[in-house]
Amino acid sequence: MKKKDMLVALLVVIIWGANFTVIKLGLGGVPSMLLVALRYLITAFPAVFIVKKPDTEWKYIILYGLFVGVLQFSCLFYAMEIGMPAGLASIVLQFQAFISPVMAMIFLKEKIKTKQVVGSLIAMAGLIIIATAAVSGGISAIPLPAIILTACAPIFWAASNIISRIASEKAAAEGKKLDMFSLVVWSGLIPPVPMFIFALILNTPQEIAGAISNLNGMSIFAVLYLAFGATLFGYGFWSKLIVKYPMGKVAPLSLLVPITGLLTARIVLSEKLTAMQWLGAIVILSGLVITNLSLELVKGLFTKKSSETD
């Protein structure tokens, strides 16, 4: 991966890491389904009047918006509302890093390299270490529906990755180039209506109206952060990387999200990091180094060193 793209990817995971703290803060004043609806309402408007519609079929726009916006976030946000801790949610969601390459192998006939398998297994071990430390003695207190919903979220995220790749490859076959930022903007039109319906199912109209009329500064900040930071910037650039590089190379980078999430919680919420969490972070970083390590680069370094010695 090019250095510029790697830096962009790191910025995305930093924003996504803080995202879970922001979600938890936002849920303090806004019901979960309404928070998702407002997130995508701000994502789509007024951007759809400025950004040109992506050069792809409407079915891909609808499917992408359905999987990444409606299904993934309805599961995640509601799970967090009914008891899933933000830190643990950030960990479980990153299992898309292992689901996406498998889906790419099945639906896109994409090969997975040995180093990617080894690196992913090491990173998974780090993820499990962090998860174990996060739920030590407390997993029984988490409602079962919250656990099930959170487990579904990464599956829907992985599916959205595949949809964006299929749409991009079909556009390329027709001599077109799919603008991924435009796809994120226009797919933002899909979630608001179903999410408002879900909100009215889970909450009374009076509760919804009260939440909207009493939005405080923290709630407004959460909506804006989720719309502009996590969605437009985050998913906009993430989708570009998914299209540009093999799934097995990009997807594992999201494993950095729990690390940045833990650090954000440490800074913002004054949560202390345990020795096990630090160990898990180091293991994840080791796995990512192996996954993204260029064999040619290593050979080049040794060749250069040998020539300098001679």
For the structure shown, list the relevant keywords:
single chain; 310 residues; mainly alpha; 15 helices; 77% helix; 0% strand; globular
Would you give an account of this structure?
This protein is mainly alpha-helical and 310 residues long. It has one domain. The protein is built from 15 helices and no strands.
Number of domains: 1
The helix content, as a percent range, equals: over 70%
Count of individual helical segments: 15
Overall shape = globular
Give the CA-CA distance, first to last residue: 31 Å
Structural class: mainly alpha
- Beta-strand portion reads under 5%
Q: H/E series, N to C? A: HHHHHHHHHHHHHHH
What radius of gyration results from the CA coordinates? Answer: 20 Å
User: How can the largest sheet be summarized?
Assistant: none
Beta-strand segment tally: 0
| Overall pLDDT score | 86
